[in-house]
């Protein structure tokens, strides 16, 4: 079973930047896709960005050009660089991992990290 640990959230002023990190740990697993989602108060969880094992990326339209996802495969870590932050980016950001283990596919969620953008 894979466990995800996130870090890097915090309070930042509008226009500022943050870097979120998510590290996957476990035994005998192979990561297929790692993604970031976010959930603002009173709203549904939404995809922010994802990255597959062959480095293909996908971004939500509203975040293209401001957010960047990257991976360090050797460390089983995915990063999310948040730039030009806006108050509406305030949310809990969750890491998600889709992986294979014991001849089947599984998924895991991190505990979430709070990002608060002040105006």
- Estimate what percentage of residues fall within beta strands: over 45%
Tell me the series of helices and strands, N- to C-terminal.
EEEEEEEEEEE
Query: Which structural category fits the helices and strands?
Result: mainly beta
Apparent shape: elongated
Radius of gyration: 14 Å
Number of distinct helices: 0
**Distance between the ends:** 40 Å
Mean pLDDT: 95
> How can the largest sheet be summarized?
7 strands, mixed
Looking at the chains present, what oligomeric state does this protein adopt? single chain
The amount of helix comes to: under 10%
The beta-strand count equals 11
Q: Identify low-pLDDT runs.
A: none
Question: What does this entry show, briefly?
Answer:
By secondary structure, the chain is mostly beta strands.
Give an overview in words.
The chain is mainly beta. It is 0% helix and 61% strand. It has strands spanning 3-7, 10-13, 18-25, 30-39, 46-52, 57-59, 67-72, 77-82, 91-101, 104-109, 113-118. A hairpin with a 6-residue loop joins strand 4 and strand 5 (46-52). The protein is elongated, with a radius of gyration of 14 Å. The model has no long low-confidence stretch (mean pLDDT 95).
Blueprint (SSEs and pairs):
Blueprint: E1 3-7, E2 10-13, E3 18-25, E4 30-39, E5 46-52, E6 57-59, E7 67-72, E8 77-82, E9 91-101, E10 104-109, E11 113-118
Parallel strand pairs: 2-11
Antiparallel strand pairs: 1-3, 3-8, 4-5, 4-9, 5-6, 7-8, 9-10, 9-11
